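Bumping my old thread because nobody answered last time. Still need a sequence for this structure:
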């Protein structure tokens, strides 16, 4: 037997793990299978069970779990270097090490897909809502949408009481959002949210470094939201993360569910938070389109017009939100945005971070459907 064959026999390949990964991958290629079997028979009951457990524990388990994993990996790597330093010049050592590394990646793939990743492959919620979502929007549509949102923002902001807003607490928004999902369930049974597990982040500064405002922890079922965010952004953010808890994996879909929750809510705070977010997307989309044409005079005119039309209180709210994120921008670790963008693209969100903006397409479809 050749030396290469002997080496191949000694390599610690985990064939059963690779076989399971291939089955999962093949399963993920069918939207029908994922929607019909994985979502109702695995993800929904497992995530509900995780939320039941984690929701009764005050600690943000998901954050601590990530920290423990990161610290353990660093310690393990240092120990591995110390123990195996003398073998670094042995080719066979690197062959075995690479195989173990790939075994670990495959294990990570299996866990990720089972607890979360397969949701990216399920049937589009557009089918549940009866929507035909366009693939693009025009500059004129964004202008019209921006003007409509300005009217809605002004009307809603006039109803909101300044003193009530100052006393608003994130825990109260958690409770209100649960109530909004209960109301939405009466109209859309597929938005059945049970066993809440909403947590305020224990380490919000990590969000500054890695560029997140909130996240869903699939291993614990928790929706973890930064408590230092401007409170007017929170109803939309919390609704978005709760949509993830229901298995709406893509950021576009989670944004759309949050849009539906906020738009159909009878609470002006939820209307306002949703319209603030959508106006930011719509105005930016229009301005980007104008900038690509190089029409900077129109660019400036649109900004000036929108500022003139917006109620001073709305402008003040937008400035507060903008200032918050501007202060945090320099803290973000270089490359973290690009890594997240790549992660989204790997999970069939071709536009990456820009997929958040695709809620504009869904909102146009929703408006058209509602006007029928």
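Sorry it took so long. Here it is:
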């Amino acid at each position: 037997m050749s030396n290469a064959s002997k080496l191949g026999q000694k390599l610690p390949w985990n064939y059963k793990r690779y076989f399971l990964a291939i089955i999962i991958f093949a399963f993920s290629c069918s939207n029908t299978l994922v929607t019909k079997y994985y979502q109702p028979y695995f993800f929904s009951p497992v995530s509900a069970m995780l939320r039941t457990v984690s929701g009764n524990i005050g600690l943000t388990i998901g954050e601590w779990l990530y920290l423990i994993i990161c610290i353990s990996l660093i310690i393990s790597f240092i120990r591995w270097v110390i123990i195996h330093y003398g073998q670094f010049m042995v080719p066979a050592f690197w062959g075995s090490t690479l195989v173990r590394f790939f075994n670990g990646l495959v294990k990570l793939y299996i866990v990720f897909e089972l607890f979360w990743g397969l949701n990216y492959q399920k049937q589009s919620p557009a089918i549940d809502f009866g929507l035909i979502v366009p693939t693009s929007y025009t500059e004129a549509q964004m202008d019209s949408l921006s003007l409509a949102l300005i009217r809605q923002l002004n009307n809603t902001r006039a109803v909101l009481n300044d003193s009530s807003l100052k006393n608003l607490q994130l825990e109260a928004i958690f409770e209100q959002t649960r109530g909004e999902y209960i109301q939405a369930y009466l109209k859309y049974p597929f938005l059945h949210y049970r066993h809440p597990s909403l947590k305020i982040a224990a380490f919000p500064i990590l969000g500054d470094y890695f560029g997140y405002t909130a996240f869903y922890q699939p291993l614990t079922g928790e929706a973890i939201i930064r408590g230092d965010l401007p409170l007017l952004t929170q109803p939309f953010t919390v609704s978005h993360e709760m949509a993830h808890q229901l298995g709406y994996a893509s950021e576009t879909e989670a944004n759309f569910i949050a849009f539906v929750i906020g738009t159909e809510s009878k609470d002006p705070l939820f209307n306002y938070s949703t319209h603030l977010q959508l106006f930011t997307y719509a105005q930016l989309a229009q301005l980007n389109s104008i900038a690509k044409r190089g029409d900077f005079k129109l660019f400036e005119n649109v900004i000036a017009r929108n500022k003139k039309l917006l109620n001073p209180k709305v402008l003040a709210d937008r400035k507060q939100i903008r200032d918050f994120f501007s202060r945090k921008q320099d803290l973000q670790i270089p490359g973290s945005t690009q890594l997240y963008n790549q992660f989204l693209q790997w999970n069939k969100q071709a536009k990456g971070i820009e997929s958040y903006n695709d809620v504009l397409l869904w909102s146009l479809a929703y408006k058209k459907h509602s006007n029928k």
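The longest helix spans residues 268-293. Let me know if any region looks off to you.
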